[in-house]
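Below is how a single chain appears once it has passed through the pipeline. First comes the sequence as given, then the structure the pipeline wrote out for it. We keep one example in the README because the format questions we get most often are answered faster by looking than by reading.
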Amino acid sequence: MNIVAIIQARMGSSRLPGKVLKDIGGRTMLARVVRRARRSSLIDESVVATTIEPSDAPIVKECENLRVGIFQGSEMDVLDRYYHGAKAYDADAIVRITSDCPLIEPEVIDRVIQAFLDEAPDYASNSIERSYPRGLDVEVLTFDALAEAWKMAKAPYERVHVTPFIYQNPSRFRLLSVKGEIDCSHFRWTVDTQEDLDFVRAIYSRLGNIDTFNWKDVLAILEKEPALAEINCHIRQKSLEEG
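Resulting structure:
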């Protein structure tokens, strides 16, 4: 089975334009995500899926610097971008990761992939029932499930967010929820605003700006410095319909 991580990335962002190339301790956010995803022991290949828009040319250049695979497709129909990207890289299973999660955890990625391999669902995720911090989201789906969603999904938010057509149709797809041992779902580790970026930069700074740390190292920091979590705890997550 060819397991391909597809990391979606574009420069456009309503709250924090150009966020995927923002600096975090000497590397871009995209570089942090790619480097951490590459530490997964179960992913066969990592690919960045960006757009054909000229504004995303800097992402293409960064991918060349990172020597990571790249696919360019539709800007707003991200489901179409994923489908054609998965086809281009002969993916049997797709690991969906977003480029605004610079704390993405290899251990968690592998846990979700292993559950997917053991149980053979159409879709496995640690975000159906949240227990991990937002920003450690991992989704694994079969190419067949992706292809069916690509054919059938009609609502704009289903195309932008790639997987809602799958996890909102449990009668059509077999879903698997992967939960952690403790509930850390109240933490916000994704980057959508300047406050989110400030939080992530603070975490990296305290860990020497390396990216080989474990997510539990971050928990340990927050236990010692709980005020850090207050930097972005007030940020409201956008709904699916908001894009």
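Residues 106-119 form the longest helix (14 residues).

See the next section for the split statistics.
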